[in-house]
Specification:
heterotetramer; A mainly alpha (501); B mainly alpha (97); C mainly alpha (313); D mainly alpha (113); A: 501 residues; mainly alpha; two-stranded antiparallel sheet; globular; C: 313 residues; 2 domains
Amino acid sequence: MTAADATTQGGALLVFAILLPAAGILASLALGGRAAERVALGSAPIALVIALAVLVEVWRAGRPVVYVIAGLSPPLGIALRADGISTVFLLTSALIVPAAGLFARAGFATPPGAEDSRKAFAFWIMLQAISAALAIIFVSGDLFNLYVALELLTFAAVPLACVEGRAETFAAALRYLLFALFGSIFYLLGAALLYGAFGTLDIALLAERMRPLPAVTAAAALMTAGLLAKTALFPLHLWLPPAHANAPAPASAVLSGLVVKGSFFLTVRLWFYVLPALPAFGFDALLGALGSGAVVFGSVLALRQPRLKLLIAYSTIAQIGYLFLIFPLGSGLHAWTSDGWNGGLMQVLAHAFAKAAMFLAAGLLYESLGHDRIAKFSGAARVMPLTFLTLGLGGLSLMGLPPSGGFAAKWLLLRASVASGQWLWAIVVLLGGLLAAGYVYRILAPALSSDPVALKAPPRRAGEAIALTLALVAVALGFAPDSFFQLLNIGRPPLATAGLP
Amino acid sequence: MSIVLDLFTVVAVGAGVFFFLAGTVALIRFPDSLSRLHGLTKADNLGLGLVVLGLIPRAASPLPALKLIVLWALVQLGSATIAQMIGGALRRREPIE
Amino acid sequence: MILFEALDLGLAALVLGVATWTIAARRVFGAVVGYVAYGLLLAIVWVRLYAPDVALTEAAIGGGVTGVLLISASTRLGRLPAVDAPPGAALKFGAAVISALVASVLAAAVIYLPDPAPSLAPEADAHLSATGLGNAVTAVLIAYRSFDTMLEKVVLVLAVAGVWSVAPDRFWGGAPAPLGRAVPDAALVFLARILAPVGAVIGVQMFWVGADEPGGAFQGGAILAAMWMLVMMARLTDPPRISSRWLRLGLIAGPAVFLLLGLAGPVMAGSFFAFPEGFAKPVILFIEAFMVLSIAVTLPLLVLGPPNGEAGR
Amino acid sequence: MSASTIAGFVGAGLVGLGLYALIVNTEPLKKLLAFNVIGNGVFLVFGIVARRGAVGAFPFDPVPQAMVITGIVVAFAASAFAVALMLRLAEESGSVSFDPEGGMGVDQGDEDA
């Protein structure tokens, strides 16, 4: 692992991936809302190019790209490392953030004549901050540096949840903030114990030095609890529905599609990269069980929501549940392990695109109908066919029907659970798909009727195109070639064994 | 010489601590806010002065000694102001901000 | 030694006692006042842990500035009715069990940390000469883990943007509400006139000596921030409008200079965020000077809150 | 018992106390105080780790201490943002509740949460 301590070719790209949005935040703050929009949208293509370049570099080298900051190797210094999952997630963020940004231009433009307005200032700065925080989360190799990134993510996500400035959004944001702060402080507590045990917070060094100690078990439990609260895994999900459902559509798309994945990504880093040598005492099964609970609970509540945005938010809780099946199904040294690993990660990607698309579609519906009450959607599909096509395609992925990324993910998870004889998870995957079919049907069925509809405003064509594109990406993920899965496995620790006895 | 200085420090700091203790007793035992304030500020100011006086001979060079004196002056300034403000607030019978 | 042990035990009991009192206090205002006292006690614990830099930070930010923030919040929130139902006995019992469990697991984990403990102290010291600094904590903050510190400064200015973002739309660009009452106490005005210049000197001095002794950009900046808040409380000056270009430049100066010099690292020293050999200390002090400025601007802005239209009334 | 062992108990105790208060209190400002108490406990654990890292002539390991300084500043920023949210919520609704569905008088739909 000491070879991982040297800067590799293309390592500087990782620094740029972080500093570009960070510099954007500072410039936007100095210049105000109108400039912030230009900076955010103008830097997005550059971020995309950087993400693609990192991906190419990792693919070509076949191993992680590393940058040692200030030339000072860990443990004293900080190293950035991008492996297969880093690159794929970086690219996902570089696609979804600008999509949400382009969609938001209509609602978050600075009024003519003004240089600055509150909503523009807040939205465009926070959007860039989410890019910055996620970039650090995906490529940093140091647990304390990742703590700073988690806080950056919190301070960006919570203001986005209440950018509309209504009382109920403040209440939702306050609850979100307290859960998020609880999450970060417990994560930090675990990091303190790990430093006390091993004298470093570098992920690669920790993995090398890892041995079972009381402090390590405590740290694992505390950090996991904190990260679960931030990921809104059942039963720590209470904050998510009001925060995601009351935010403006492009903010919801980013919050639901990307932000909760940031803390999930760290949970994966923790268990598969830092702690693989730790006997897990059934931790993986516990996480799988909580995930299963989330699938059932979230889906059932989604079935009962009267409002579309709330339904989508509860569906997020359910779909997050699937992610945690990666812990029982993606760990160990079995023939089925890589199916579980690939399935769990594919679920992250498919859900990110599908959910972002659906929240944007819900926003379009709200703009055109003036409400998002499902019961009053009758006939809307005839006047807004593209929007409902988006909801349908996104729903396809949530249900796990072919062809879609969701299908690929759930198929792989199913295969892993059958091959490993862990039937319970298979039942959960199937049941979740069935329930998802139920709530997607609830959205689409009334809309397909031929009742007359009065639109307040015709749907924005550009907005529809953006949402539909995201949904199509979610579908296209179902056709991911083998090389895509090879990429996901570059740099994956040889002993990715959260449950090894 | 050093024994005399040591003795001076012990006596002065000991007396200072005693006055701090007295001030705290005043804070707890006196019946109303104004007399509590009175007891606390009087005793603590004297206590701090004695502690600083006792510590000055321990300073290795003039600069730390000077810092001790500046510290004492700053605390005097702060506590005098705050006592004044608390007293004013009590007279107006307002909650203290 | 026994004396020190007794003192440590007494201090520990006092800290836990005041913390319990703070948490159990019925009135929010009382709880907040308890919290400020508790912050000062914690600073003493930090001194006992041989962490003077942390003690200064805890006293200035953890106790002082947080105290101003919470006290002014409690006077503005205190009169509102609480609407959420108090927790039932079952919830309280469950919470007590979970908290006790977490505390005991944590205590056990700390006690059974490996002996001898791992340490980066020798390594930090070995690299100290390259930075030209004498204070290893400052070296960690500004040199070894400069990337963390730069990002943390971005977090701070983002928090300011977050605070501003909750402002009512109609007040955007205006000034936050003044600190303190409309007609300040004459004694406070006197204090502000005398103390502010002295405090400003102390703040700058604390940053300057921070290169070699306890102190540094955070602590010095916090003292300057406190002086600005004192002057505002005495109404010698009012909070600035948030649209002010100068204010915004002051806000981002620290992280921006840090980021730019970090980017210049490959040219200066062959790697991002590296400092040129033999010339490290002036570069570090240059960055720190802007950080002091930004911290002195950021902390009061966080306390002041969003613009709310009260200014100038 | 050494100072760092005693501080270990204090740190663990503060985390426990704060966690209890965070769950049980309904007043937002008290929840925020509780969060700060947990934070102090966490920072103390870092402080103990730093003190245990004393080697030879070095009385402490500077790395965890630097992390605490970063942590204190971030915790303050979090508190400030939380206070701003509470004050605005109080202005908009006349009360401060964590329950986004209750007590607001705003039609939210009849969702379960």
